[in-house]
Amino acid sequence: MSLIVKICGLSTGETLDAALGAGADMVGFVFFPASPRHIALGTAEELGRQVRGRALKVALSVDADDALLENSIEALRPDLLQLHGMESVARVRDIKAKFKLPVMKVLPVATEADLSTLAGFAAVADRILFDTRAPKDATRPGGLGEAFDWRLLEGLDLEVPFMVSGGLNAINVADAVRITGAGGVDVSSGVERAPGVKDPEKIRDFIRAARAVDETRLASG
Rounded to whole angstroms, what are the CA distances from 161 to 17, 35, 84, 105, 185? Predict the structure, then answer.
């Protein structure tokens, strides 16, 4: 199966077009005011229309209440909800039941102990995304440009698909996939020229590098 490539934190038509044109499988939009990548509902509606079925639309939220989730869903019409906060297993289950959309739960990782909750979330989520655990004083849980020790995921056997994020870029994405065996990669700050400001060329470079991973797999297989 081909590697799934997700470009997250898109906020302009130009950068979204770069991601779509380069062949991104998923495009992510952030609904979290503390993030430099946060977008207004009106912008989400415009960008959502621009996607036109060329990729899966992902709505990212952080410990959002039902009202915020409902508003973002109405604006973006996402294919997938990304829950990037401290949502419990029960909350993930409730969101799936209420909004009838697939859910990708983000698990922050710094040490092996952080994987202790994995089984519970894997039982209710449709996908798992492993991201670097943010420092205690961080104002947001992701998009910080730091990688975790990918060796913590070596040999991981999950019944649901999983992806990796955190500090990825065009240079290290191949190593991340090789070590973790992940079926997908998610990048945000690694394709930016400044926090929240995506760089079209970096987007294209990242997707090109990620696609080369598939070519390497085919050659070695």
Answer: 26, 26, 17, 11, 11
